[in-house]
Write a structure and sequence with these properties.
The chain is an all-alpha fold. Helices cover about 75% and strands about 0% of the residues. The longest helix has 19 residues.
Length: about 60
């Protein structure tokens, strides 16, 4: 699986870690799920663009 480096404010990362801990899953799992949800949401707004983005993301996540 490929790795991605992103930057975010410490406070935001702390919120992500807290939620991941509460749900007993990893930070990576939580971020992947958030991206999947975002892609599904954008499918309704712009299906062609969202479909291409979903394919790219799924290739990266598989």
């Amino acid at each position: 699986m490929a790795r991605v480096l992103i930057s975010m404010p410490e406070e935001f990362l702390s919120r992500i870690d807290k939620l991941a801990n509460e749900e007993q899953r990893t930070r990576s799992e939580l971020v992947r799920e958030a991206l999947r949800s975002y892609i599904k949401k954008t499918t309704i707004i712009n299906p062609q663009r969202a479909s291409k983005n979903a394919e790219i993301l799924e290739e990266l996540l598989d």
